[in-house]
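Q: Convert this sequence to structure tokens.
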Amino acid sequence: MLLYRSTSTGVEVLLVHPGGPFFRDRDDGWWTVPKGLVDEGEEPLAAALREYAEEMGLDAPSQGPFFDLGSVRQKGGKTVRAWAVEGDCDPARARSNTFRLEWPPRSGRMHDFPEVDRAEFFPLEAARRKINPAQEPFLDRLEAFLRGAPDQAPE
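A:
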């Protein structure tokens, strides 16, 4: 789910930074849209809303319209589908669900880490630096949608 808002300086989008020890010191190119897996029998939009709520610890946007941004394939082979919706939230209130991981590796010590360790609204120009490069087309498609350019429909 790509939440966006209009401000006096332009459009901003909400991105999340992955939690856990692997991403602690990584910034530009590592942020992402709140996302996750679609459960069996679940509609993709319903999954996007559920994953937003799980990763943000906040209510998912309930009012549309929701604009289908299509899908992208990430470097590791994972396909991500996203929707844009206009809305607002306080990213400082985000409280993600957690996952359990042995850390350090082969230490035998298990630790809980948040799936998302922070969330932030970024102007589109900054979002292009922060977002996983494979997800940058979502920003292009959002911009086209906001300009009313139907020729930029998602793939």
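The mean pLDDT is 94.
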